[in-house]
């Protein structure tokens, strides 16, 4: 692998993939804080407009399964660039919507078209970096996710009064087009780094059985699902909460949400390094506890100036969990890295969509009830994570080094599955 791409090219490619991840997540979350504005434009309730969030996220998650399989068969570079091109075109076309129903349809199409970029970028990191070094590059990618969520929310809300919501989609689509052109020269590098994997349908199903049959895979994918439901549910409706609780407009909502994503954008690589050095077992419970604490704080009255701080705590909880889960997944797939990471992103985005739907349905009671339910679930995850992830420690702390092959044919310089 090192003979194919040198360290300088590898780092440059990592930064470009982080840029693509940032833009895709910017587009995914720029609509959440403008839900109140869109409800006025289209003359419908905020709860109805809020459905355009899962309309994007759930198809995105489902489609990642197909993209991961296609990438293993056809090559990551082909599928990734086609998906990025689809993201550019469909994002721009979303500006043509004349009703909330049309916008929802464009969001569904964009979710399907765009979902091949991020999971394949994560799978590519699994090939470019050995397991014991993946924390930092995965921190870059998940930091870009959090950064896209962070800046997509406030900038989306702040730009709409000046360029309207249609202009917002056009500008983001154009930015994706520029990034696509910059990435094109790296097609051959990506193709040489990750070779297509052949196999039968039986091999495919066996790989899913292996991923979901082992305790390590079960607990990791399970936590990815529930944790993503928590974060999407709370964050998607946070703008509506701030509008109703404090009477904030789009700009005020944008400023209040500015704290979200900043920890990941600034600290993502550092968190990854700490995870590589000290173990995911020590960081994951802390991240889950921080997330639960943020939900608890939102249940009580607080001055609006503290909203960015609470958003920052919520974001830090995300940054100390989902990237670390992805690091574990990156060691599960073997040659089928695209399939393993596709399943991870499928689980992540389906959780995003379900979380926003479930939180919205709980609003028939009130925001306090919704925050309480989500907070209790996240706290429960934190408590059980101490036991379930106690084995996710650096290799040197769990077994002595050896040569040759370890359990299940895994290279001995990588950690093996510890139940």
Describe the protein.
The two termini are 30 Å apart. The chain is mainly alpha-helical. The longest helix is centred in the middle third of the chain and has 49 residues, at 135-183. Helix 8 (135-183) packs across helix 13 (250-256). Helices cover 76% and strands 0% of the residues. It contains 20 helices and no strands. It has helices at 7-29, 35-41, 46-49, 52-74, 76-93, 100-114, 118-128, 135-183, 187-193, 201-213, 215-236, 238-246, 250-256, 262-278, 280-298, 307-319, 322-329, 337-362, 367-388, 395-398. The protein has a single domain (7-201, 210-394), classed as Growth Hormone, Chain: A (Up-down Bundle), CATH 1.20.1250.
- Compressed to H and E, one letter per element, the order equals HHHHHHHHHHHHHHHHHHHH
Helix % is over 70%
**N-to-C span:** 30 Å
Provide the low-confidence segments as ranges.
397-419
The named CATH superfamily: MFS general substrate transporter like domains
Count of all domains: 1
Q: Judging from the principal axes of the Cα atoms, what is the shape?
A: globular
């Amino acid at each position: 692998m090192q003979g194919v791409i040198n360290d300088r090219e590898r780092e440059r490619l990592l930064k470009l993939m982080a840029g693509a991840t940032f833009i895709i997540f910017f587009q995914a979350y720029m609509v959440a804080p403008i839900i109140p504005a869109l409800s006025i434009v289209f003359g419908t309730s905020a709860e109805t407009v809020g459905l355009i969030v899962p309309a994007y996220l759930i198809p995105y998650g489902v489609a990642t399964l197909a993209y991961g399989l296609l990438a293993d068969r056809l090559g990551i570079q082909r599928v990734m660039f086609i998906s990025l091109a689809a993201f550019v075109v469909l994002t721009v076309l979303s500006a043509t919507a004349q009703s909330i129903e049309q916008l929802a349809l464009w969001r569904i199409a964009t979710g399907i078209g765009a979902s091949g970029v991020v999971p394949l970028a994560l799978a590519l990191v699994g090939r470019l970096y050995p397991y014991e070094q993946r924390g930092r590059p995965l921190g870059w990618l998940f930091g870009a996710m959090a950064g896209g969520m962070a800046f997509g929310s406030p900038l989306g809300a702040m730009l709409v009064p000046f360029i309207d919501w249609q202009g917002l989609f056009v500008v983001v689509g154009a930015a994706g087009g520029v990034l696509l052109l910059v990435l094109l020269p790296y097609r051959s590098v990506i193709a040489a780094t990750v070779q297509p994997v052949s196999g039968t349908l039986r091999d495919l199903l066996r790989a899913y059985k292996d991923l979901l049959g082992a305790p390590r895979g079960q607990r990791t994918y399970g936590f990815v699902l529930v944790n993503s439901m928590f974060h999407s549910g709370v964050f998607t409706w946070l703008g509506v909460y701030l509008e109703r609780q404090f009477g904030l407009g789009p700009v005020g909502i944008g400023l209040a949400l500015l704290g979200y994503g900043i920890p990941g954008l600034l600290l993502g690589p550092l968190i990854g390094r700490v995870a590589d050095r000290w173990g995911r077992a020590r960081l994951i419970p802390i991240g889950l506890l921080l997330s639960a604490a943020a939900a608890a704080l939102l249940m009580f009255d607080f001055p609006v100036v503290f909203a960015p701080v609470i958003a920052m705590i919520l974001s830090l909880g995300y940054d100390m969990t989902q990237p670390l889960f992805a690091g574990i997944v990156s060691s599960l797939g073997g040659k089928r890295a695209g399939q393993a990471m596709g399943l991870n992103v499928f689980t992540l985005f389906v959780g995003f969509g379900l979380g926003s739907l479930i939180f919205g349905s709980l609003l028939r009671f009130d925001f306090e009830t919704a925050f309480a339910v989500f907070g209790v679930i996240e706290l429960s995850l934190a408590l059980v994570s101490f036991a379930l992830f106690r084995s996710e420690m650096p290799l040197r702390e769990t077994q002595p080094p050896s040569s040759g092959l370890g359990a299940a044919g895994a290279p001995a310089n990588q950690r093996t599955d510890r139940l």
